[in-house]
Amino acid sequence: MKILITGTAGFIGFHLANRLLLEQDVEIIGLDVINDYYDLRVKYGRLAHAGFPIQSIRYGEILQSEKYANYRFIKLDLCDRAKLYKLFIDEKFDVVVNLAAQAGVRYSITNPDAYLESNIIGFFNILEASRQNKIKHLVYASSSSVYGWNDKLPFCTTDNVDHPISLYAASKKSNELLAHSYSALYDLPTTGLRFFTVYGPWGRPDMALFLFAKAIAEGKPIDVFNNGKMKRDFTYIDDIVEGIKRVIYHPAQAMPGWNGQNPTPGASKAPYKIYNIGNNDTVLLMDFIEAIEAEMGKKAIKNMLPLQPGDVPASHADVTDLVEDLGYRPDTPIREGVKKFIGWYRDFYKI
């Protein structure tokens, strides 16, 4: 199987590619534009860890990994339609896993154009290239942020998600709608994955765990939003990757008995499916901070703040579909996951 994974200089894409290469008989091409949204040392560090001589990376040129014989990488912008289409034609992929996106809820409020370009135009280009080249399965990253103002917990894929409260969330909902249109029009199997607060080694420096660890290490205050009353369904990276891996080999199918008079939002009479991938549990933000403090061996200086625009006070994933269809339920305890992250963090930054 030949797989295109976009976003392989990113957190989830990096882990997915390495896991598949170690466990499966696959050929992978990784793709990433390598923008400077966050610390480039982390992005290039991920690529170097996967065996790519980062000094040799050139835009639009495919580079061979020195670690994996069946892994290549290309620096490419999803909005570069001509080069993207040529890549699809030349490589003849079986499956596409689209994890490339402009991330971040708060950043979307001040930089909305980045989300329209990467998350909507870029995703449209992936859809169109997949259609033209008869891709067998398109798997793509959505987000728990699509639940927006929903306050019925846990969040379920049968819930209505028409009330996003950030442009980032709206762009992800748009991805789901575009994917359904392509599934319906062209019989393209598409599976969207709503990730719930992913964390772990090689994580994103803009996420809470990374920001908290850095501030605590430097003796600086941490911003605690919603006065610490925030609840999140923190999901360890290995659990996310296991979920994606299982989905790859389980292409979306039409739902038997799907009824247009009482439509199920997360499925369709087209080959279209949505899954939540979360730990199926909630953790109070203050408990999360305590776990970090325990591993860092140092108390945090807390700057208590109100809920920020675009943030939701709580998230909690219903993973019933994931269990029933794929026999999988994420379950890494928060203290175990935080311990692994802090170990990586200390090693990477030589603390």
What report would you give on this structure?
- Helix 3 runs parallel beside helix 5.
- The chain has 351 residues and is α/β, with parallel strands linked by helices.
- The mean pLDDT is 94.
- Helix content is 39%, strand content 17%.
Topology of this structure?
Layout: E1 2-6, H1 11-23, E2 27-32, H2 40-49, E3 62-64, E4 71-75, H3 81-91, E5 95-98, H4 105-110, H5 112-132, E6 137-143, H6 167-186, E7 190-195, E8 198-199, H7 208-218, E9 221-224, E10 231-232, E11 235-236, H8 237-248, E12 272-277, E13 283-284, H9 285-296, E14 301-304, H10 320-326, H11 334-348
Parallel strand pairs: 1-2, 1-5, 2-4, 5-6, 6-7, 7-12, 8-11, 9-14
Antiparallel strand pairs: 3-4, 10-13
The fraction of residues in strands falls at: 15-25%
Q: What is the total tally of β strands?
A: 14
Low-confidence stretches: none
Q: Which value, in Å, is the CA radius of gyration?
A: 20 Å
Mean pLDDT, as a whole number? 94
How are the strands of the biggest sheet laid out side by side? 3-4-2-1-5-6-7-12
Class from helix and strand fractions: alpha/beta
- DSSP helix fraction: 25-40%
User: Globular, elongated, flat, extended or rod-shaped: what is the shape?
Assistant: globular
* Number of continuous helical runs: 11
Ends: how far apart? 41 Å
The main β sheet shows up as: 8 strands, mixed
